Amino acid sequence: MPQRRTPNSYTAKPQDKPKVTPHDLVSGVVRLVSLPEVCIRVNEMLEDPKINANDIGRVISQDTGLTARLLKIVNSAFYGFPSRVETVSRAVTVIGLRELRGLVLAASAVEAFSKIPNDVLNMVKFWRHSVYCGVVAKILAQRCNVLHSERLFVAGLLHDIGKLIISHRLPNEAREILRLQKETGLTDIEMERQVLGFDHAMVGGELLKVWQMPKTLMSAVRFHHEPQESDDALIDVSLVHIANGLTFIAEQGLDAEIGNHDIGLYAWQTTGLDQSIMDDVFKEAGDLFTEALESILPRSYRPY
C-alpha cells in the first residue's frame, strides 16, 4: 500500500470561509436542481405498502428518457441478468425498488450537474472515479456475501455527490480548494474542511437525507471517509470506504496529481477483507467498469 505524503501546512483564514452550512447548500440545490417529478413520486410511493412493481413501473415509464437509461443499465453485462429486461416493472422486480431509486438519482445527477465548468470540477474524471468506485464496491460486497450487492454499486456511484453540490453552489471556493490541494498535497476532504468548515461527504449525506434516500445509502455517502464514525450500516460504509481507496490507488498510475488515500484498518476488519484481494479486484473491475461507464454516462463524459 502506498504511504501517504506529508502535506505542507495550510490554515484557512476565518474570513475565507463562506457563512453557509451543508444544509444551506442542499436546500438551495433542491430548489435549483430538483429531481425529476417521477423520482419524487416514486419516493412517495415507496412509503405505501400497497404499491407494487407494476405501479412503480407505470410512473417511471411516463419519463421516456429516464426509462431508456434505466433499461440500458439493467440490461448491461454489468448486471448480467440471463434474459433481457423489457419493462421498468420487470426492472423493479429484478433489482429492487430501493436500488432502482438510487439509479434514478444517479441518472438525474448526471444530467442536472452537467454544466459545471471544467476548471471547477473535471466532470470526466469525476464520473469515471464514481463509476469505478461503484463497480469495486459491488465486487467487494459480493466477496463479503452481502445480499443485494447492487446497492453497493449505487452507494459507490453516489459517494462523492457532495462535490457536485459544492462545485455548483460555491464555484469560487471549489477553485480555491483545487488550487490549494495541488500546492499543499492535502487530500480533497482535508482541504474542504479547512477552507469551508465542512466537507463533501457531509454535503452528500445531507442531500440524500433531504431526498429521502435509504438510511444505509445516506450513511455510506456521509461516512465514506470515516467509517468508524458511523453508528449504522457499518458494512456498507466500510465497503464504500475501501472501494474509494482502491479507486484512488488504481488511478495513481493514470494521474500523477492524485494524492495517496489511506484505507483504514477499521474498514478492513469490519468487512473481513484485507489487502491481498487488491490485484484480483482490479482485474475483475476492468471489463465491468467499461460496461458500466457505457451504460450510465452520455458520450460527452467519455474521452474516447
Query: Which spans have pLDDT < 50 for at least 5 consecutive residues?
Result: 1-10, 254-260
User: How many β-strand runs?
Assistant: 0
Structural domain count: 2
Structural class: mainly alpha
**Helical amount:** 55-70%
Rg estimate, integer Å: 19 Å
- Note the run of SSEs as H and E: HHHHHHHHHHHHHHHH
Mean pLDDT: 83
Largest sheet: none
User: What is the 3D form?
Assistant: globular
Distance between the termini: 30 Å
CATH architecture tag of the largest domain: Orthogonal Bundle
Which fold name fills CATH's third level, the topology of the largest domain?
Hypothetical protein af1432
Number of helices: 16
CATH class of the largest domain, named Mainly Alpha
Relative strand content? under 5%
Find the CATH superfamily of the largest domain: Hypothetical protein af1432
What does this structure look like?
The chain is mostly helical and 304 residues long. It folds into two domains: 34-112, no CATH class; 116-304, Hypothetical protein af1432 (Orthogonal Bundle), CATH 1.10.3210.10. Helix content is 62%, strand content 0%. It contains 16 helices and no strands. The chain has helices at 22-32, 37-46, 53-60, 64-74, 88-95, 97-112, 123-143, 150-158, 161-169, 171-184, 188-196, 200-210, 215-222, 234-252, 265-271, 278-296. The longest helix is centred in the middle third of the chain and has 21 residues, at 123-143. The model is unreliable at 1-10 and 254-260 (pLDDT under 50).
